[in-house]
Write a structure and sequence with these properties.
By secondary structure, the chain is an alpha/beta fold. The protein has 2 domains: 24-177, Creatinase/prolidase N-terminal domain (Creatine Amidinohydrolase, Chain A, domain 1, 3-Layer(aba) Sandwich), CATH 3.40.350; 182-417, Creatine Amidinohydrolase, CATH 3.90.230.10. 31% of the residues lie in helices and 19% in strands. It has helices at 24-41, 51-58, 92-98, 119-129, 151-160, 170-177, 182-203, 212-225, 294-311, 320-334, and strands spanning 45-48, 74-78, 84-88, 103-107, 136-139, 165-168, 236-242, 267-273, 285-289, 346-348, 355-358, 372-379, 390-399, 402-405, 415-417. The strands form 3 sheets. The protein has a 6-stranded mixed beta sheet with strand order 4-3-2-1-5-6, with helices on both faces. β5 (136-139), α5 and β6 (165-168) form a beta-alpha-beta unit.
Length: 418
């Protein structure tokens, strides 16, 4: 007859996480700020399913990206009381050894562990214990969150929480994440220094006869050398070349690299970048093999002049839409037919490649010190569309007196391969 285990001795739990993903002071700062904003917005608790948000507020990361109902996890931030982390039992030790959360609750469908057998049971119990199961519960609602939960599951959870009312958690989340902490700023500075060295290594591999994959391989090798390998891996190199005879018709942006051999006369782009500890980079550069055509050189000059004119005039207190207007006018001033080719001239960055605020005509967010922004602007061959043109992008820290360039390790001008 099988003897079932009724009690498991896991040994003595460490007083502090031995392998924390974020410092304890950072964890406390973020949670304190979130609760202040929850008070302002009248929220009793936030229930977070986005891996980026769970990581931001708890430090927990799923290294295997096991994003199915059998491994469901979430974070609960009650306005009063300690942060709760709910994980499937297989993640138990990960959570306890990498986060500063004390209230970690586990569930498991295997009854031998004597745990709640469903995620829903664990979720309801945590909310009930904090007295918020019939309160105002905030969920991630915005377009920038990739939720680690199915819509059917969300509907079932809400139906089970009879008596609760629902609101958006987005104002609280972005109220925290848009303004970077000192720890984040230091990390992002270091990340940008390493990322530019990675891209530069790739550009140094550009030559006739090399393939796009050869160039990307050089970037990846440098990325490993720089100790930027992360788990889970969240990064993206976008690199492509455009045959000179095709002009803009050969433009494959946005696309992965192809097994294409580079040749004399090619123009190409790099975009996005490596990550570190979950934080992204996103900057753009252009290259040309051989002597660039005069029109191409003119477009580069126009781009850089309009870009610098914009950068020099961005200040805290402006709205994101004001930056859009400033950039748009700077581009038109270079050549009356020019216009911004996409519907924004930048965005925030952090645990996502594209975060709020958007530097666009419909975003009225006030630019504040501590924001980290990607500013991107381009001039193209209008109306002939024979040359590729240039879209430059760099990462900046907003300071009291303007912007600090963080990706200056890679020259902004066209990279010419002679």
């Amino acid at each position: 007859m099988t003897e079932f285990i009724t009690e498991v001795d896991w040994g003595e739990q460490a007083a502090e996480a031995p392998y924390p993903t974020i410092p304890k002071s950072e964890f406390e700062l973020r949670n304190k700020r979130a609760r202040e904003l929850m008070e302002e917005h009248g929220l009793d608790a936030m229930i977070l399913f986005s891996p980026a948000n769970v990581y931001y507020f708890t430090g927990f990361r799923d290294p295997c990206l096991m994003e199915t109902h059998r491994w469901r996890y979430c974070a609960i931030l009650p306005r009063k009381g300690e942060t709760v982390l709910i994980v499937e039992n297989v993640f138990n030790n990960n959570a306890r050894q990498t986060t500063h959360v004390k209230d970690i609750r586990t569930w498991c469908r295997i009854k031998v562990w004597w745990l709640p057998t469903t995620f829903e049971e664990c979720l309801k119990g945590a909310l009930r214990d904090h007295g918020v199961d019939k309160g105002v519960l905030a969920w991630e609602r915005g377009d920038s969150f990739a939720l680690n939960v199915a819509l059917d599951e969300l509907d079932a959870f809400r139906s089970a929480l009879d008596g609760a009312t629902y609101a958006a958690a987005d104002p609280v989340i972005w109220g925290c994440r848009m303004i970077k902490t000192e720890w984040e700023v230091a990390l992002i500075r270091d990340l940008c220094d390493r990322a530019t060295r990675c891209v530069k290594a790739g550009f140094e591999a550009i030559k006739p006869g090399a393939t796009e994959r050869d160039v990307q391989r050089a970037m990846w090798s440098k990325w490993m050398e720089e100790d930027m390998f992360d788990c889970p891996v969240t990064m993206s190199f976008v690199f492509f070349s455009s045959p000179s005879e095709q002009g803009i018709a050969g433009w494959r942006y946005v696309s992965p690299q192809a097994e294409r051999v580079l040749q004399e006369g090619d123009t190409g782009f790099y975009d996005c970048g490596p990550t570190m500890k979950g934080y992204w980079t996103d900057f753009q550069r252009i290259f040309h093999i051989g002597e660039p055509p005069q029109r191409q050189q003119d477009l580069i000059k126009m781009t850089l002049e309009a870009y610098q004119m914009t950068i020099d005039n961005i200040r805290p207190g402006m709205r994101a839409c004001d930056v859009w207007d400033l950039a748009h006018r700077a581009i038109i001033a270079q050549e009356w037919m020019q216009s911004e080719p996409i519907d924004f001239v930048g965005h925030g960055i952090g645990l996502g490649n594209h975060e709020y605020p958007w530097l666009s005509d419909d975003d009225f967010t006030v630019i504040q010190p501590g924001m980290v922004l990607c500013v991107e602007m381009g001039c193209y061959d209008i109306p002939d569309l024979k040359e590729l043109g240039y879209m430059i992008e760099d990462i900046y820290l907003v300071k009291e007196d303007g912007l600090e360039l963080l990706t200056g390790g890679m020259p902004q001008d066209m990279w010419v391969v002679e």
